[in-house]
Amino acid sequence: MDQSKIWKGNWTFVLAAAGAAVGLGNIWKFPYLAGESGGGAFVIVYLLCILLLGLPIMIAEIYIGRYGRKSPINSVKRIINDFNLNKLWLILGWLGALAGLLILSYYSVIAGIAASYIFSSIPASELNPAEYSVEHYSNFKSSPLTMIFWHSLFIGVTCYVVGKGVVDGIGRAINILMPILFFLVIVLCIYSSVTGEFIKTFTFLFNPDFSKITPEVVITAMGQAFFTLSIGMGSIMAYGAYMPQEQMIGKTVLIVIFLDTLVALLAGFTIFPIVFSNPELSVFVGKGLLFESLPVAFHSMPLGAIFHSIFFILVSIAALSSSVSLIEPFTAWIEEEKIFSRLKGVIILGLIAWFIGLGTVFSDNIWANYEISGLNFFEWTTVLTDQFMLPLGGLLICLLVGFFIPRVELEKDLNLTGNISKVFSVCLKIVAPLSVLLIFGYALS
Ligand code: PHE
Question: What's 372's DSSP letter?
């Protein structure tokens, strides 16, 4: 690989990986899934998955990327060639490229809603802000054209940034904007915990009712762990290719996982106190939770309208730093193989994702009544990607690195010694794959 593409210093990788990981998954999806899936029961399984699956898989995924120093598909190819493995392992690369497109299709619709919210704070004179907020979201959803407009805008910007090259465009923006987002989430969290129902939120999130742990809750929590960490599909692998050789993968992954989990929990402590103190709002509303609850908090804050807009600007940016990483693996491959130029490649991929995204748009309005096995188009896309494709990708990553890369290679590259090396090996060969398989089995039972 061209050495100039390798990032300088350790922080660029940390910020880029945190940028990919922290996004709508933390601020929008984690709270709504926790709300729908019984709070504490979901949170505990989620945290266990982050630790038992997220940690080893993220390390292994970065390892593959840094070893191959190419797009995920070609990095896997290099491993196949160097270690004389079966060509079927390439499925790992292709599965990820496809998952990226599918996730982007709905991610962009939701990010589009977030972007539109920059301009729609609740009027200061409104006497019943919670009711207003629920109605506003419902009106928004019922207009396919408005949704398509914002969806198109978001995917357009994503393609533009990726077309320009990830390092220069988004790399610089993330360095400045991510810290601001963290700061604002903390301020908001304190504000709503103080003014809203903090104790109720704490009990809801951390006092698990174990009888609520059902196969569905477990598979949802596992899917969310993969989704939020951006693992199992090549995003982190693609960034691994740009990681300096001397950077410690283990330590870096710990930082990224810590930041990601922190933002998800802070988002929970921002949203639920508001929901619990407004009877018009409900935790069971699904994907509208963020859009219905937060504007209510801003409405009651001094300078709320300004904070409202700043917050949704930052959420849109966090979403952009993730959406870019969704489409990057496939684009990088197209560029490497010289099939099209980077820009042409990303435009074609963007159009495909845009088109599939129309299904998510219509799930809220003209296709609202079309369901297969109780799930609409949007829900099928999320279930297929989060709960099937990403964990399957994760499983393949564990098996590939755990069983087919010689232990000495891994110890050298990952700086592992003694017991830590043994624990890592057991996690990769046994704990993580077995957990994924057991959860798959449990969900199907
Ligand atoms: N982790 C991102 C988020 O939480 C979404 C994402 C998933 C990005 C998979 C890349 C790959 O918003």
Answer: B
Amino acid at 376: N
**Helices and strands per DSSP (H, E), number in the chain:** 22, 0
For the record, the structure tokens of 296 come out as 């209510």
**CATH for 3-444 (1.10.10, 1.10.3470, 1.20.1740, 3.30.420):** 1.20.1740
Which residue's alpha carbon is nearest to atom 6 within ligand 1?
Answer: 230
- Integer Cα distance of 174 and 317 in angstroms: 8
325 CA distance to ligand 1 centroid (A)? 8
Q: Is 227 in the pocket of ligand 1 (CB under 6 A)?
A: yes
Q: pTM for the complete prediction? A: 0.94
DSSP characters over 323-381: HHHHHHHHHHHHHHTTSS-HHHHHHHHHHHHHHHHHHHHHHTTTTTT--BTTB-HHHHH
Query: Model confidence over 113-152: pLDDT tens digits?
Result: 999 999 999 999 999 999 999 999 999 999 999 999 999 9
Return d(Cα 322, Cα 328) in angstroms, integer. 10
